From TrEMBL:
Entry coiled-coil feature ranges: none
Functional description taken from the UniProt entry: Component of the mitochondrial ribosome (mitoribosome), a dedicated translation machinery responsible for the synthesis of mitochondrial genome-encoded proteins, including at least some of the essential transmembrane subunits of the mitochondrial respiratory chain. The mitoribosomes are attached to the mitochondrial inner membrane and translation products are cotranslationally integrated into the membrane.
Location in or out of the cell: Mitochondrion
Phosphoprotein listed as a keyword: no
GO molecular function: small ribosomal subunit rRNA binding; structural constituent of ribosome
UniProt keyword annotation of Ribonucleoprotein present: yes
Lineage: Eukaryota, Fungi, Dikarya, Ascomycota, Pezizomycotina
NCBIfam families: S6
Keywords: Mitochondrion, Ribonucleoprotein, Ribosomal protein
InterPro entries in alphabetical order: Ribosomal_bS6 (IPR000529), Ribosomal_bS6_sf (IPR035980), Transl_elong_EF1B/ribsomal_bS6 (IPR014717)
Major localization class: mitochondrion
Full protein name: Small ribosomal subunit protein bS6m
GO cellular component: mitochondrial small ribosomal subunit
Length: 116
């Protein structure tokens, strides 16, 4: 399955972000998955103040990682991210089932051609 994980790490230290992405990537690779891309989105203000590990966070360092992995591997990555106190939030979305027909459907828009 193709997954996209977006994570928010406490800001201030780029090395922490690299360590967290490396840890998640190693889990995926050890269990036979493939990492498609890793994007560093930078530091942004959070939509609202978030409390994590007895700290209030107003800003976060965002990253995005796309990877192919099994459902069990995705669950392991999710659990690892939720237990790391440096991670403010993370979420994963399943993008496809590795079939070309499914992946090619992303981006298509069904337009209504009738006049309103």
């Amino acid at each position: 399955m193709l997954y996209e994980m977006i994570g928010i790490v406490r800001p201030g230290n780029l090395a922490e972000v690299k360590e967290i992405v490396l840890a998640a990537g190693q889990i995926v690779l050890r269990q036979g998955g493939v990492i498609r891309s890793v994007d560093n989105w930078g530091i942004f203000a959070l939509p609202r103040t978030i409390s994590k590990a007895q700290q209030l966070h107003h800003n976060g360092h965002y990253f995005c990682m796309r990877y192919d992995a099994s459902t069990a591997t995705q669950q392991t990555v999710k659990n690892t991210m939720s237990l790391d106190p440096r991670v403010i939030r993370s979420t994963s979305v399943k993008l496809g089932d590795n079939k070309l027909e499914t992946l090619s459907k992303f981006g298509q828009i069904n337009w209504l051609n009738s006049a309103v």
